[in-house]
Design a protein that fits this description.
Helices cover 12% and strands 33% of the residues. With 329 residues, the protein is mainly beta. The longest helix is centred in the first third of the chain and has 19 residues, at 2-20.
Length: 329
């Protein structure tokens, strides 16, 4: 009789396991229902080792008690690095994943949680952490005798404001030399600081800076979230100067800048985001030789990371798919 009862219990348990694949209830806690998945996941590089996520809650949050953010290393040669961070509360839709490795690309996604039961994953975003400047930089008028007009971003010592004497290290510049009544910001190679050979007076060559996305209606780098990687290279390329007076709106302005390192074969690229601040309704502060613009910067210290070119992201996807196919065999 006891054997018969044990067999019935085993059959019932097996049936519960089989049926769990056909409904949204948790086998361990049958009263739980599977919550809806978040959507609209977007990311921003918060630091060299952390990324901030933002997402949209599911239509119904009745069964949502928390969210779990995930970061899975891409193109790993061994066991991929994986991070999970739980964010409590159904109404919380942002969070930070730390402990990441600079120079690596991760797949970021979010799950809703109902106690022990997870939803399907949200959309996946490939991204990488980036460094953030710890202070703003003031780029001064070309007529200033002591203060610099250029910003060197990808320097061993870190970003710094530089004078023409170090013009070859400029990555971005403030240019009121071409037309004082219509100052610009952008690529040193398109500025009035260089000659027809793209050289500074001391014969240093300017760096080639391409520009990608631009952002308006923002107050800081913290307002810029992305859902996909930048697709600016290799064609078309645009080495631009932006006319500051033509930038409308009442908030700050930002852009992605890309420096082409032609000394490598094939050429490699550095990526940075720059935000120009608007104070009291104006970008340009001060007058005459004391005129300046103030900028913040977020930048990749590793080449070819994002705001990565689309092709590179597709390569990561292909590698990751190959890895998953190999594991499935």
């Amino acid at each position: 009789m006891k054997s018969f009862l044990k067999m019935n219990i085993m059959i019932a348990a097996l049936a519960a396991i089989v049926m769990s694949g056909c409904n949204t209830n948790d086998v361990v806690n049958p009263g739980l229902t599977k919550p809806g998945a978040p959507s609209g996941t977007m990311v921003q590089s918060a630091s060299a080792t952390s990324v901030k996520l933002k997402w949209t809650a599911p239509t119904s949050t009745t069964d949502v008690t928390a969210y779990v953010m995930m970061a899975i290393e891409q193109a790993a040669t061994g066991t991929p690095e994986k991070k999970e961070v739980i964010v409590s509360g159904a109404s919380t839709t942002t969070g930070v994943i730390g402990g990441l490795t600079e120079g690596k690309v991760y797949a970021f996604m979010v799950h809703s949680i109902n106690d022990t039961l997870r939803s399907d994953a949200s959309n996946e975003v490939l991204w990488s952490p980036a460094r953030r400047s710890t202070a703003s930089f003031k780029l001064y008028s070309s007529t200033n005798a002591t203060q610099g007009s250029g910003l060197g971003i990808f320097r061993t010592a870190g970003p710094a404001v530089l004078t023409v004497a170090s013009g070859g290290e400029w990555d971005v510049c403030f240019d009121d030399k071409f037309n004082p009544a219509d100052p610009r910001i952008g690529s040193p190679g398109q500025s009035a600081y260089v000659d027809n050979a793209y050289q500074f007076p001391n014969k240093q060559f300017s760096k080639v800076i391409y520009t990608g996305r631009t952002y308006t209606g923002i107050t800081s780098l913290d307002d810029i979230y992305e859902s996909d990687a930048l697709n600016v290279m290799p064609t078309p390329v645009s080495e631009n100067m932006y006319q500051i007076g033509s930038i409308g709106g009442t908030s700050n302005w930002g852009s992605v800048f890309v420096w082409k390192d032609a000394s490598t074969t094939p050429a490699t690229y550095w990526y940075a985001k720059l935000v120009m601040k608007r104070t009291a309704g104006k970008f340009i502060q001060g007058t005459g030789s004391s005129a300046y613009v103030e900028v913040d910067v977020s930048y990749q210290n590793t080449k070819n990371l994002p705001y990565a070119v689309k092709q590179r992201v597709e390569n990561f996807l292909q590698i990751e798919q190959g890895r998953r196919d190999a594991q499935a065999k």
